[in-house]
Amino acid sequence: MVKNCGFFSATSKPGIDLNSSKFNFVRFISEDCQDGARLLDNCWGNVVFGWIVNAHTNGFIYGNQPVNASHENTINIMVEGGCSAQGLLVGENCRRTVIFAGIRSVKGVAVNEKAGLSEEYRPSGNIYNIRSRLSGSQSCIVGGWQGSWSINSALDGRGGQVGAVYAIDVYGSAIQFVASLLDSDPWQVRGVVFRESTNANVLSSYTFINTKDSFLDLGRNQYSL
Question: Which residues, other chains included, contact 73 with Cβ-Cβ below 8 Å and sequence gap of 6+?
Answer without folding.
Answer: 39, 43, 44, 45, 46, 47, 48, 62, 97, 98
